[in-house]
Amino acid sequence: MKDNRPVNLDIGTIRLPITAYASILHRVSGVIMVVASFLLLWALDLSLAGPESYARLGELFGSPLLKFVIWGIATALLYHSFAGVKHLIMDFGVGESMDGGVLGARLVFALTAISAVLIGVVLW
C-alpha cells in the first residue's frame, strides 16, 4: 500500500510539542551529568590530596569560567531531578494526558529557570 502523505525530512522545520523538548532535554541533562561526574570526581580527588591542592582548587573555583561550568552542572542536575519527579508523578497516573504532559513540562521548565537564576545569584 502506497502512502501519499507528504514526508518532511528537514529537521529544522519540524514542529515538536513541548513534551518532546522536555524529553530530549531530560536525556541531554543525563549525559551532561555523566560527563560532569568525572570533573567533579577530579575536583574531589584534588581537594583531598593535601592543603596545597585544596588551596589551588579554591583558586580555580574563583574563576568565572569554572563558576559557569559549575552553574551549568547544577542546572542540568536540577532539570534532570525536576523531570524525574514529573515522571514519578506520571507513574502514579497523574498527568498522563497530553494536557497534563504539557503542564508538567512547563512546570519543569519554570522551576529549572527559577532555580538556575537562584544558583547564579549564589555563585556570583
TrEMBL record:
Transmembrane segments: 20-44, 65-83, 103-123
Function: Membrane-anchoring subunit of succinate dehydrogenase (SDH).
Note on cofactor: The heme is bound between the two transmembrane subunits.
Sequence similarity: Belongs to the cytochrome b560 family.
One GO biological process term: tricarboxylic acid cycle
Binding site for heme: H80
Molecular function GO terms recorded: electron transfer activity; metal ion binding; oxidoreductase activity
Membrane-topology descriptor: Multi-pass membrane protein
Keyword S-adenosyl-L-methionine: no
The protein's assembly and partners: Part of an enzyme complex containing four subunits: a flavoprotein, an iron-sulfur protein, plus two membrane-anchoring proteins, SdhC and SdhD. The complex can form homotrimers.
UniProt xrefs under InterPro entries: SQR/QFR_C/D, Succ_DH_cyt_bsu_CS, Succ_DH_cytb556, SuccDH_FuR_B_TM-su
Major subcellular site: membrane
Pfam family for this entry, one: Sdh_cyt
Known cofactor(s): heme
Subcellular location: Membrane
Native source species: Congregibacter litoralis KT71
Keywords, sorted A to Z: Heme, Iron, Membrane, Metal-binding, Oxidoreductase, Transmembrane, Transmembrane helix
GO cellular component terms attached to this protein's record: plasma membrane
The protein's name: Succinate dehydrogenase cytochrome b556 subunit
